[in-house]
Structures are given as structure tokens and as C-alpha cells.
Amino acid sequence: MNIQTIIKLLIDAGIEEREAKKEVKMLLEHFCNYTEKDEILGHPITEEHLRILKNKVEARLADRTPVQYIIGESYFMGKFFKVSPDVLIPRPETEILVTKAIELIKEHDLKNILDIGTGSGCIACTIADRTNAVVLGVDISSDALRIALDNVTRLGINNRAVFRKSDLYSKIREDEKFDMIISNPPYIPIGTELEPEVKHEPSVALFAEENGLQLYRKIIMDAPKYLNKGGWLIFELGIGEASAVKSFMNEYFEGVNFEGVNIIKDFENRDRIIYGRLI
Ligand code: GLN
Question: From the CB of 185, is ligand 1 less than 6 Å away?
Fold first, then answer.
């Protein structure tokens, strides 16, 4: 048995070669403490390492558990975040969202941020870690919030990213005002067929009614109550949802209007991020 045999187990199960190599690397690093540095220095991968790897790959393939849940961690914007099946695994697309949010926060010196549907807390924690803003992350799931709390402790930013159980704005007081509302809400239309790995993720984090638009609608409708004047609203978008969300942000609801609504594309040239400023 060698490392190629292990990679092949994944490939034979239908996992793309690049992904298979990446996953083996992640497992080696996490369970065998064997890093890229060891590879560069020519340290051998031992029989013991291979035995552990095979074990983990078999567990991964038995029911297509995402490798991040096996490891219990996921890499996001340069840091490792704790994850479990109680939270969505942070996606590379969400890095585009957070990068833009950080840019706006710095440019306009924004102070108070609300992250709706915080899940693992990856968005809230990264913003608190990289800017001077204070972030409140809310989620409907207590199990998700437990993970978010672990992540904030890991990063050592407890007083700047705080969490609260709340169904959207339900536990936000109207005198709590924010300079930005950010959200990567559940946006997959109910009934969409998903990859077997995605089925391990919490459905409350994935699916939304109204063709995937329900949470955008609810967040946008009430945003003016919780945003300071000129405050920003920024979302990650599901596929094909940009124009509906844009129209929600532009006077679809009485008294709700955002200016300069802009869309950013993802790596595959799909509309992925939308943001605008409350008028
Ligand atoms: N905010 C978390 C993330 O972006 C969780 C989002 C969700 O569960 N829909 O990864």
C-alpha cells in the first residue's frame, strides 16, 4: 500500500482526482501530523500513516461523509474553523462575500455588524478578526451556536464576535442598530437534488421556501428597522437568484430601498454576491 493506492480509493468512488489529492493531504495533516513541510523535507509516509489514512478514507466513503466532518475542521480565509454536521461547511464562494464585506467595513469605518444565520460563525469570526468592527452572529440553531462559540474562543476574539439565538431578527431589539447586515442564508429551493456529501449538512442551513428566496425576502423587508441610515446589506446568492433579490432591494416592499446595488461574480462567472446601501 502506498499513498497512490489511497488516493485511488477516492477516485474509484467517483471523487475528482484534484479533490481526492486535497482530501488525502487534509487527512494526513490532521490525523498523522504530516504536513507539506514534511513532504518538502522528504520525510517518509510510514505504514502507520497509511493504515490511519485508509481507515479514514473508508469512513469517508462508507456514507459519503464530507472530509471536513471527519476531520472536524474546515479551512476558511486562512484559518481552521471547527465544524460538525450541525453546521454548513464554509464554502470558497463565501470567501468572496467576506472579502467584500471587509473591504466595505474598512472603507466606510463600519462599527456594528449583524451576521444572520451565522452557522459555524465563520463569517462573524473572520470579520471580527480582521477589522475593528464588533459582530453579532445570530442563528435559529442552538447546536450551530455551540460551534460558533467554540470558534470564537479558538480565535481569541470573544468580546468582538458575540452570538445569540434568534430566528432572523426575532431576538434583536429595535434600538440595536447596525452599520451592516451580512448573510449567507439557506437558499437552495426545496426539492433540489443534492450531491451525497451535501445531504450530510443540516437542511435548515441549506433549503429555503419560495424557490429559495424566502430568507432574502424576510431579511430585506425588515432590514430598515435594524440598519442605520446608509447601512449596508450584503448577501451570498444562490444560483439564478440575483435578479429576484435585486428587485427585493429596490422598492419591491414599501419603504425599502437600497442604492448602488451591485453584484459580484464567483469563480464560475455566476452572480454570487449582492450588496447595496440603505437609502
Ligand atoms: N454563515 C455560515 C456560512 O456562511 C452558515 C450559512 C448557512 O448555514 N446557510 O458558512
Answer: yes
Taking the model in full, what pTM does it have?
0.96
The residue whose CB lies within 8 Å of the most ligand 1 atoms, and thus the one to mutate among 88, 93, 163, is 88
Q: Are 234 and 131 spatial neighbours (Cβ–Cβ below 8 Å)?
A: no
CATH superfamily of 85-278: Vaccinia Virus protein VP39 (3.40.50.150)
Q: CB 192: neighbour CB atoms within 10 A?
A: 13
What pLDDT score was predicted for residue 1? 86
CA pair distance 50, 249, nearest whole angstrom? 53
The H or E element containing residue 165 is: strand 161-165
Q: How far apart are CA 224 and CA 258, in angstroms?
A: 10
Domain spans, the chain? 3-63, 85-278
Please, are residues 87 and 120 in contact by the beta-carbon 8 Å criterion? Answer: yes
**Residue pointed to by grid coordinates 437600497:** 258
| pLDDT tens column, 124-170 | 999 999 999 999 999 999 999 999 999 999 999 988 999 999 999 99
Q: What are 138's strand-pairing partners?
A: 116, 164
Is the C-beta atom of 137 inside 6 A of ligand 1? no
